């Protein structure tokens, strides 16, 4: 599956790597792993994303290799690069401002992804829907190319797998995921130290906000759909900085509810700017629901971002669509 990409890696010299807006542990960990992998091959590599990494992931990048896209500073880098490697996204609009550089036809582009394919936007698409994470794909690529995995590479891949599998919990976890993790530990990375950095690093403000979010928890009458909201008011009262820490923990608490099929978290990030996270316990395809609202993701973990929208009507619209999907599934079981 990596044939075309391997040819590109061997032939080209200058690479820019980018990932989706609001990058997560998979995007950031994979970027760092790819960065070192290509550097070790003597390539020139830049990491340029629309958004800065969350403080949660600063331990990945002590040397400050992540750049926040600024057209004036970076356009020349994109123009003179040979390859743009876009990872962990299936649609170019997920690049935010960096999408403009992708449209620059001077640059050869590669999409390296594990989402169900959406649109073809790059010169080559290397996609493995069965991979738990981009990290898993990078590990496979390194093996196929016979490349040495170093501690830096192992750390990036491990963070990618750890975060996208919800610490080896979700349905994308299998024996291969564990075998790769076991292999990575041989390079001297320390699971507890990584765990502490990501999951035992919550600010007081974040825990307070979680409390407020939990106070909004609701269940529908079938007890199969649960949802909660993070309002602007709650953000202001707790003084939580939305852009500093990973927020997967919020929806993780909700999905622990027994008997439910789907959980939704509505976050009013800014006034009239709403982010919706959808998670399924394995029977409902929430990617299909997210796509109806212009979002996307994986069958069991998806997201939607809505601009110029009020919280309450958004909640009602998405709840209705989700209830309908759950009802269709329940009815199909009865037949
Ligand atoms: P999140 O709820 O943000 O953690 O996202 C869960 C999954 O959905 C990830 O695979 C994201 O890449 C994807 N996703 C989140 N938001 C969007 C969006 N607005 N459009 C497309 N995919 C998204
Ligand atoms: Mn991601
Ligand atoms: Mn991912």
Short recap of the structure:
The chain has 335 residues and is α/β, with parallel strands linked by helices. The chain contains 13 helices and 12 strands. The chain has 2 domains: 3-199, inorganic pyrophosphatase (n-terminal core); 204-334, Diaminopimelate Epimerase, Chain A, domain 1.
Biggest sheet architecture: 6 strands, parallel
Global structural class: alpha/beta
Considering the protein shown, what is the CATH homologous superfamily of the largest domain?
Answer: inorganic pyrophosphatase (n-terminal core)
- Gross morphology: globular
Q: Would you give the CATH topology of the largest domain?
A: inorganic pyrophosphatase (n-terminal core)
Query: Residue-averaged pLDDT, rounded?
Result: 97
- Number-wise, the strands total 12
Q: Low-confidence segments, ≥5 residues, pLDDT <50? A: none
Q: How many discrete domains?
A: 2
Bound molecules: adenosine monophosphate, manganese (II) ion
Distance between the amino and carboxyl termini: 40 Å
Looking across the biggest beta sheet, what order are the strands in?
Answer: 3-2-1-4-5-6
Portion in beta strands: 15-25%
For the structure shown, list the relevant keywords.
about 325 residues, alpha/beta, inorganic pyrophosphatase (n-terminal core), Diaminopimelate Epimerase, Chain A, domain 1, 2 domains, 6-stranded parallel sheet, 6-stranded mixed sheet, 12 strands, binds adenosine monophosphate, binds manganese (II) ion
């Amino acid at each position: 599956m990596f044939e075309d990409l391997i040819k590109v890696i061997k032939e080209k010299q200058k690479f820019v790597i980018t990932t989706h807006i609001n990058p997560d542990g998979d995007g950031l960990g994979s970027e760092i792993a790819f960065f070192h992998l290509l550097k070790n091959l003597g390539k020139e590599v830049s990491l340029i994303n629309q958004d800065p990494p969350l403080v949660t992931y600063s331990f990945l990048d002590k040397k400050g290799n992540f750049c926040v896209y600024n057209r004036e500073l970076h356009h020349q880098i994109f123009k003179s690069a040979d390859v743009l490697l876009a990872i962990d996204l299936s649609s170019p609009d997920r690049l935010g401002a960096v999408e403009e550089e992708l449209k620059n036809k001077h640059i050869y582009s590669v999409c390296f992804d594990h989402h169900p394919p959406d649109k073809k936007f790059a010169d080559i698409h290397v996609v493995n829907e069965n991979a738990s994470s981009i990290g898993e794909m990078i590990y496979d690529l390194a093996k196929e190319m016979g490349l040495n995995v170093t501690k830096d590479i192992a750390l990036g891949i491990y963070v990618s797998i750890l975060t996208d599998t919800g610490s080896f919990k979700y349905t994308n976890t299998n024996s291969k995921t564990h075998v790769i993790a076991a292999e990575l530990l041989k390079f001297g990375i320390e699971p507890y130290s990584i765990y502490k950095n990501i999951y035992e690093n919550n600010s007081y403000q974040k825990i307070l906000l979680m409390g407020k979010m939990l106070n909004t928890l609701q269940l529908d009458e079938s007890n199969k759909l649960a949802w909660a909201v993070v309002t602007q008011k709650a953000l202001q009262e707790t003084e939580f900085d939305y852009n500093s820490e990973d927020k997967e923990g919020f929806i993780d608490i909700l999905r622990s509810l027994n008997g439910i099929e789907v959980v939704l978290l509505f976050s009013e990030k800014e006034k009239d700017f709403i982010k919706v996270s959808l998670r399924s316990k394995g029977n409902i395809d929430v990617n299909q629901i997210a796509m109806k609202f212009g979002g996307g993701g994986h069958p069991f973990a998806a997201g939607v971002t809505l601009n110029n929208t009020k919280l309450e009507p958004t909640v009602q619209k998405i709840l209705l669509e989700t209830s309908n999907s759950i009802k269709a599934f329940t009815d199909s079981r009865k037949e």
